[in-house]
From TrEMBL:
Protein name (record): XS domain-containing protein
Highest taxon of source: Eukaryota
PANTHER family, alphabetized: PROTEIN SUPPRESSOR OF GENE SILENCING 3, RING-TYPE DOMAIN-CONTAINING PROTEIN
Organism, scientific name: Populus trichocarpa (Western balsam poplar)
InterPro entries: SGS3 (IPR044287), XS_domain (IPR005380), XS_domain_sf (IPR038588)
GO BP: defense response to virus; regulatory ncRNA-mediated gene silencing
Pfam families per the UniProt record, alphabetical: XS
Length: 494
DNA sequence: AAGCCAACCAACCGCCGACGC
DNA sequence: TGCGTCGGCGGTTGGTTGGCT
């Protein structure tokens, strides 16, 4: 902290530090009582005033600081100063090794949730952690190191699995009280706990450490590093947000399901978490024995399709994020083609969808709203199909009085068995989706209005394909290749 | 000694959700 | 229900410091 600070010892505020109120927008610190608010570094005198104020009045009500203490700082600035510097029990100085390790693990699990990470590091502030991480990113970027060591990935996997289990329990309890909205996009996220990937079985499912990171696979499409080839990179998040707003008009529940937009931000982590050397030219064996094991590039995705299919020597020339392919590649889509990596990625996404976004202490960074919605739609259809096929095969009917829980559990047991079958990447999605179920949908279909059998033939297959198409188009839209309006039209067509 | 550069850090900024009226 | 305010959060900026050439 010796670097700190530029504060003027005498506390005199220079003219350029006092700004006229930002009142026209009111976004940051406006002025109260028509006065002007000071910006810039805090002086020790100001600190003393703030400390005194907090002693008297306690934390909170920061906008009142100016009124009561005569401090010409906006409430936000006061809160920040207090939280980051004046608050008691703040640890100062460099992070210890334990803290660094913890940050890495937490970031692997949570992503850029600095405040939540700070909660796990007593005496540390989110700002500190953020700065540390950003510095670390730059350092590793420069050195071509991965951000996450294998241990962190592994722990994130275990933690995620544990949390998924917890979520499942909570969700199962909760789901009994949830009802499906008629709008198929108003879906409780809890619907997807049954879609938990069984990584030990499925060869195409990325490991869970990539939850945060894999969600960031897409994030990176707007990363500055790739700006050179991401043509419409500008205001990506703004566009996505607009799309969110647009799509939110479909239904109340939909907006909440669209966190996927927020996840398209950081490709670096994605490339790393998928075992891609990062940035582009790196001899892992000589430069970083700490982070790279013998089978370099596979530490976070040992059985994933990315690291396995692409030799890392190829990745040295990596120019596109993992999910981004040139337009010429896209032209190769067709029934006779082997699954393109993008399709496969979509399948992977579908196979390991975000799970359990029920807020709990466990980080649940996976939340890919639209995919959730689509998956739910597909699952609802498929579960209904299951019901029908069960009926036809067993010649037994589900009575409305059946115990929903037990039936759900039974169906989910069959789901596990289904996962055991090695299935081709393209075929897997539909197969697995049709073999899956949700307690709610099962319950729902068992209760009443079971669709007639013809409903589940062409129409629902069409829906399935449509859903996949939407996923793909959505991904493309996220990559700025498809204007939002097309996505909108297709959704309307649904 | 001077210039450059990376690292570090504090603070600003804009967005968003919660809350109260 | 709509609006304004407040507080929190994450991204970004800009200043300072220290090391290297």
């Amino acid at each position: 902290m010796s670097r700190m600070t530029s504060e003027s010892e005498d506390g005199i505020v220079s003219n350029n530090q006092i700004e006229s109120p930002l009142g026209e927008e009111g976004n940051y610190c406006g002025s109260a009582n028509g006065g002007v608010l000071k910006k810039g570094p805090w002086t020790s005198a100001e600190d003393a005033i703030l400390i005194e104020y907090v002693k008297k009045h306690g934390e909170g009500n920061w906008n009142a600081v100016q009124k009561h203490s005569g401090l010409f700082r906006c409430g936000k600035s006061c809160r920040l100063r207090w939280a980051n510097h004046l608050r008691p029990n703040l640890k100062k100085g460099a992070f210890t090794q334990e803290e660094e390790q913890l940050i890495i693990e937490l970031h692997a699990k949570m992503g850029n949730k600095w405040a939540r990470m700070a909660a796990h590091l007593p005496g540390r502030t989110d700002n500190e952690i953020k700065n540390y991480w950003n510095t670390r990113i730059k350092r590793h970027q420069r050195a071509g190191l991965p951000l996450y060591p294998p241990e962190a990935s592994l722990q994130a996997l275990q933690e995620s699995q544990r949390c998924l289990n917890i979520d499942r329990i909570e969700i199962r309890n909760k789901s009994q009280h949830d009802t499906l909205q008629s709008n198929s996009y108003g879906i409780p996220n809890v619907m997807f706990d049954n879609l938990t990937p069984h990584q030990s079985i499925l060869p195409y499912v990325p490991e869970l450490p990539d939850i945060t990171a894999s969600s960031m696979l897409m994030k990176g499409l707007s990363s500055f590093q790739y700006g050179s080839f991401m043509s419409p990179i500008m205001h990506r998040q703004k566009r996505l947000r607009e799309a969110t707003t647009l799509l939110s008009s479909f239904g109340g529940g939909m907006k909440n399901e669209f966190h996927l937009f927020d996840q398209f931000q950081d490709v670096d982590k994605a490339s790393q978490s998928f075992g891609l050397p990062f940035p582009f030219d790196y001899d892992s064996t000589t430069k970083n024995p700490e982070f790279f094991g013998e089978n370099q590039g596979s530490h976070t995705l040992a059985n994933g399709n990315f690291s396995a299919s692409k030799p890392t020597s190829e990745a040295v020339k990596l120019e596109l994020p993992s999910l981004q392919y040139s337009e010429t590649d896209l032209g190769g889509w067709g029934p006779s083609c082997s699954p393109s990596p993008l399709i496969e990625s979509v399948d992977t996404f579908i196979q390991s969808p975000p799970t359990g976004t029920v807020e709990s202490d466990c980080p649940s960074p996976r939340n890919s709203g639209l995919l959730d919605a689509l998956l739910h739609e597909a699952k609802t259809l498929s579960s209904a199909k299951n019901q029908l096929s069960d009926k036809s095969s067993n010649s037994s009917t589900v009575t409305p009085g059946d115990d929903a829980d037990s039936s759900a559990l039974n169906i989910c047991e069959t789901e596990r068995e289904d996962y055991g079958h090695p299935i081709s990447p393209l075929g897997h999605t539909a197969t697995s989706l049709f073999s899956e179920c949700t307690p709610i949908s099962a319950n729902e279909s068992s209760l009443d209005e079971s669709p007639s059998s013809e409903t589940f033939t062409g129409k629902h297959l069409f829906h399935m394909n449509l859903s996949r198409m939407i996923v793909i188009i959505y991904l493309f839209e996220a990559m700025s290749w498809v204007p939002p309006v097309i996505f909108y039209i297709i959704l309307q067509a649904c």
